[in-house]
Amino acid sequence: MKNHRIKYTLALLVSFVFFFLPVVSAINYDSGVLIDDLEKRIELGSVDRVISLEPAITEAIYLAGHFDKLVGVARSARSANWPAAVEQLESVGTIRHVNIEKAVDLDPDLVLGSGMSREGLELLAKLGYQTAYIDPKNITDIWNNMIELGELLGDSEQAQAQVAEYKLTVEEIKDQIRVGEQKTAFFLYNINPVMAMGRDTIPNQVLELAGAKNLALDITEEGNPSFSLERLLELDPDFIFLAMRAVSAVEELKNDPVWSQLTAVKNNNVHLPPTEYILRPTPRVIYGIKEINQLVYP
Q1: Measured between alpha carbons, how far is 252 from 51 in angstroms, rounded to an integer?
Q2: How far apart are CA 224 and CA 187, in angstroms?
Q3: Quick one: which of 52, 55, 223, 259 has the most CB atoms within 10 Å?
C-alpha cells in the first residue's frame, strides 16, 4: 500500500504534463449523487447490484476493485471480453441487443451503459431502474471515470493507485521517445473506402502519447475521416495501424500495386494492434499506448 501511495503522489506531480486535454465528458459522483455524461443527476443509496452494458465499463469496475458488485453484463460480440471472470457472470445479451427480461430478473440497483447500448439503457430507465450513461471522450475521462466508479461502489483507493501507475507509465514512455526522430502514422479504420482515426478520437491520443504523429490531423477534424488513396500516398506515413484484427488485411496491402508503394508497407510497418485496448474506451488503453510505442520505437 505504501508503494501505491508513493506512486500516486508522484503521478500527481507529473499529471499536469500529461493531462493537456480538458475533462469534457467525465462522470462525477459525490455524496450519493451521480452526474452522468448526459448531465443527468441520479440520487443513489447503497449500490450493491450493478449491471454493465458495456465491456469498457465492466473492465473499469474490475480494475477499481469492485467486480463483486456486478450481477450481470452485456458482452461484446466482436472483440475479446475481459477479464476471464466475466464468463461467470449472468449475461444480459450483447451491447447492441440487451436482454431486457434477463436484466429485470437480476433486479439491479444501477445499470451502466453508453452509446452502443443506449437503447437498452433507455428501455430499462422506462421500467423504473436507475440508469447512468457513461461516454468518455478522451483518456483523461476514462481514468477519471474509473476513480468515480470506485467511489460510487465503495472506495476509490485501488482505482487511484491504478491510475497513478498509468500516468507514470505515460511519463516513462515520453522520456524514452527520441527527440527529433518522431515517426508518422495513420490509424486506418477502413481500407475501402479509406478512412482514418482523426482528431478528437482516443486512437489519435494513443498515437500521440506513444510518440507518433498522426498524419490524419492534416486532413480533417472529423472522428473517422474519409480521404483519397492518392492523398495517403502523398503523405506516406512511416507506420500504418489497422483497426481490424485480420492478417489477411496486411497481406492485402502488401499485394496491392498501389498500397505497396507506401513506405509503411515496404518496410513491413503495417500492424494490427489489439483494438480492445484502443477502440474500446477502457482503462487498459495504457497497453495500447505501450504496444504502439514499442512498435514505433523498438
Answers
A1: 41
A2: 10
A3: 52
pLDDT in tens, 198-249: 888 899 999 999 999 999 886 555 555 677 889 899 999 999 999 876 778 8
The residue count for the chain: 298
- The stretches of 184-241 forming alpha helices (DSSP H) are 202-209, 229-235
- Mapped onto helix, strand or coil, the DSSP state of residue 265 is helix
Give 85's DSSP letter. G
Cis amide prior to 22 (ω within 30 degrees): no
What are the backbone dihedrals phi and psi of residue 146, each rounded to the nearest 5 degrees, phi first?
-60, -40
DSSP three-state, residue 42: strand
Spatial separation of the C-alpha atoms in residues 123 and 128, rounded to whole Å: 9
For residue 72, give the nearest of 24, 110, 38 by alpha carbon.
110
Final residue of a domain: which of 127, 145, 169? 169
8 Å CB contact between 95 and 78: no
Residues 24 and 93 grouped into a single domain: yes
CB 164 within 8 A of CB 54: no
User: What pLDDT does residue 193 have?
Assistant: 84
Grid cell digits, residue 15: 499529471
For residues 165 and 183, membership in a common domain is answered with: no
DSSP three-state, residue 78:
coil
